[in-house]
Amino acid sequence: MTNYQKTALVTGMSRGIGKAICEKLVREGYFVYGTYNTGKQEAEKIKETLKSVEIFQVDFKNREQTLAILDKLKDFQFDAIINNAGMFEWENFKKFDFQIWYDTIEVNLNAPLLISIKLQNNINEYGSIVNVASVSTI
């Protein structure tokens, strides 16, 4: 047993898989720093219910917001980083919207890469980075 509480960063923690990951980690004794974008009420309820959670609103489509949250987290140590936030929007190929393409790439690929690179020195020995993806976003 270690003398410190384990910590994790979970992106997209307000619902679905992210919520389940957050709940499991807290049950396992972790303190979780979680991000949400549009699920403020859900994130606040998780924080209130689980207690060992701190939440941050961030839209990973916006590179400046991604870098700002990384700046806030730069002094924290983590035993786990779970890049779970993702997005998917159906596209009509005949009316293809490149902004949706750019946003999807930013959220699903660039943000997890930035998080992993910028926080790599903040991972405790034997810590892990887990990247969650969906076949819907490929």
Automatic annotation (TrEMBL):
What Pfam families does the record point to?
adh_short (PF00106)
**Family the UniProt entry places it in:** Belongs to the short-chain dehydrogenases/reductases (SDR) family.
| Protein name (record) | Beta-ketoacyl-ACP reductase
Q: Which organism is it from?
A: Candidatus Argoarchaeum ethanivorans
Q: What is the lineage of its organism?
A: Archaea, Methanobacteriati, Methanobacteriota, Stenosarchaea group, Methanomicrobia
